[in-house]
Amino acid sequence: MGPEVRFHLLGPLTVTVGGRPLALGGAKQRVLLAHLLLNANRMVTPGQLVETVWPVDPPTSATANLQTYVWRLRRLLPDGADLRTHGPGYSLAVDPGDVDAHRFSRLVAEAARAAEDGAPEAALTLLSEAEALWRGDPLEDLPTAPAWDPELGRLVENRLAAVEERLALQVRLGRHDPAIAELTVLLAEHPYRERLWQQYLLALAGAGRRAEALQAYATARERLVTELGVEPGPELRALQAAILTGEPLPGPARAAVPVRQLPADLPDFTGREEYVAELSAALGPAPVVLTGAPGTGKTALAMHVAHRLAGRFPDGQLYVDLAGTGAPCDPAEVLADFLHALGVTGNTVPAGLDRRAAVFRSRLAGRRMLLVLDDAATAAQVRPLLPADAGCAVLVTTRGRLPELAGAKHVELPVFGEREATRLLSELAGADRVVGEPAEAAAIVRCCGYLPLAIRIAGARLAGRQAWSLRTLHDRLADESSRLSELRVGDLGVRPSFELSLRQLPPSARTAFGRTAVLGAQDFPSWVVDALLDREGTHEVLDVLVDANLVSQAGRDAGGHPRYRLHDLLRCYAAELLAEEPRAAQRETLTRVLSVLLALAKTAATGLPPAFGAMTGRALAAAPVPARVVTDPLGWFTAERKLLAAAVQLAADAGLDELAWQLTAAAVPFYDLRGAYDDWRRSHLTALAAAEAAGNRTGAAVLSRGLGQVRLYHDEYDAAARDMKRSAALFAELGDARGEALAVAGLGTVARVRDRPREALSFYRRALAGLERAEDGSGVAQMRNSIGSTYALLGEFAEAEDWLRQARELAREIADPHREAKVLTELGTLHRDTGRLPESLTCLRLALSILEELDDERCSAYALLGIGQTLLAAGEPVQARGVCDRALRVFRETGNHQGETTGLALLEQAQRRRSPSAAARS
């Protein structure tokens, strides 16, 4: 084994062998090596290397010179570093552990896991070790290269984040005085860094210096407001309020929050001790498959075991209902949801099953997590969801065996024995009643086939009817002729329990129960029952169904409203009842529910920032729309996201093409705001197929425009252009000038992102004329904005400013504050590009205040980024970094990779401006 090789980027570029530095040659050769190390184990093209080594005026011999530098590096580098040629490009193959930047990231990740495992001292040691790797600014001895800015910015930001986390741990451990001393120095260097202020306030308050903590908040607020023009964020404001009122202080921010997706454990879980022990012992690197007949309690047992083993999986638990007994979930969609839960959102979620599975496995690397895959249909559905890391475990429940799932351990769950069954009945109905009628209790569990679900339903009936004797229930269960024929265990089934429940219901509740089947496997809010029965005020009907254990609560949405669902067996039974109604009545019920959902979606959409190009159709006749449901538009869309997607599919399958396209079109402002591009694309494709099959040209035109927009976001420019052209042609055939203009505007945007500004201007002017004819004031303002920003790209600044000022005047005239803020952001950029920095700041800060009032985090982040760029141009790198920190937080939360990259590049530029060593090398 040779001497230890180390590559050092976190300071001057250094390569050591056995602790002794190597001579790396001249500046250009070292720049080449630095670029290869920043892209270690990835191929880089000669063009990228030439641009990095000679950022200005490369010589005609650049390619030949580059080959010479590569040859020299190959001779110079020690074993353990392999500079390879890949076709026209190069890659430097190294062990990531030999590069200090990679070791730093690994140590920080290990510290985060240690903190989550309840080992703060170990986390502190790891963070201190990580910080010790830094010897200055990254690559501080080399000339700057614009291509490095995002990565160097990321390194600098991660360094400061690690320091923040170490200080947060110190404060949490009560080491207030040393934390205060260090935070005082750091705040002098980073006076706008809100997390540092949070820890400073916590440390002062923890040290009994509350008055100083309140004064520190006042200082922080004054600096943020007077120097940046922004108020403190909600976390800092909440902390100040807690200190002021003497309330318990919020704990320090944690490096990571474990994912906890498990549904609640049953409080009256009974028996199964043998299987609890078997599953607990079996869970490990190999997946465990729990099989059994319907109603044997597979899900309940899985939840119970998963909750008991939470301590073995400190990084959390992922849960999904794979709907194997209904319409099985697409594993690609499940992976998208899992990735969202793990912090991968928006454009960072790749397309395609294989790529998503790869990212998912990568995200789970080094973690200890438990995955519960409930109600799996096939092994093919499960395989892409399996992690590769041995620290994770997977528990699968399924009605059918999955012998083709290689390496899996299989556990089959039978029905209860008589003793366990009687214990469960006793827990539910009351021990005194079971003791008082032991023979009847035995008869009841026997009639239930010892099936846990049937016993639970029977026990709930008894619990809700204290006047009943157990004999009464036994007599009702004794009629075998009405049992569910599809769901049997031996010669006994579940149907007696279901029918017994239905017999006790009033007619309205029986009707509502059957009609819930129109929604399939989706959970639903309470207003759905109004639409099912076509009348208002059905809360008492829902209460009856809940009391009868025919409908169960499925938790609460983000707004605190309860949601409901049917167990899969009960849903099958409800579908049988629904089938007894005429087909026309079934279609009418579905239409009614979806029409109310559409009306609510349109109402919610008006409360979100408008998405340019989004269109909705004519109002459809609907049942009474419930009031006060959409109090929080964004929260409503978040809660109903899955129901909306399912509704589009239900409408398409039922031939309700108008409802299908309007439902997905109404959700576009939400999809746009939250970057939910998968939902957007999938629902549009589903509805478009339905619209085309029905010859619905309006729907096809609107959806083609929407598909073009989401493809534009995914950089699929050819496909986006085809969709926009098709939309424009359909709208032209329909004589819809506004729709045609919006589609043509999309073609302009495609041309602009393809760097064809003159072509873009032609489309924008054509779209402007159409929108003016349609008297669409907001659209006209947007087109003037687009034309102005395109002229700015061409360097025709006077023309650009004239168009932008026209756009702002119109936005103010039609009282469209969101459009005005977008125009102000463009004006701020224009003023910065033309050297009018005070005017730039004025426009951008006004845009920010409007956008924050509208609660538009995404556009606010771009305004903050613009402010940071202007402050940097004005020679204020510290202030620029302050606003950029806030913008980066939003970009990361929303998965905006492009915004994050731009922000990190700005951070690196600000760091260079304020660092003497970096300034010298520039």
**How does the overall form come out from the CA principal axes?**
globular
Going across the biggest sheet, name each strand in turn.
Answer: 6-8-9-10-7-11
Summed up, the helix count is 42
Report the span from N to C terminus.
Answer: 41 Å
Major β-sheet annotation: 6 strands, parallel
Helix content: 55-70%
Residue-averaged pLDDT: 85
Poorly predicted tracts of residues:
250-256, 480-493, 916-922
Q: Briefly note the structural class of the backbone.
A: alpha/beta
Number of strands: 16
Strand residue percentage: 5-15%
Q: What is the rounded Rg?
A: 32 Å
Give a description of the structure.
The chain has 922 residues and is α/β, with parallel strands linked by helices. The strands form five sheets. The chain has a six-stranded parallel beta sheet with strand order 6-8-9-10-7-11, sandwiched between helices. A hairpin with a 2-residue loop joins strand 4 and strand 5. It is globular, with a radius of gyration of 32 Å. 47% of the residues are buried.
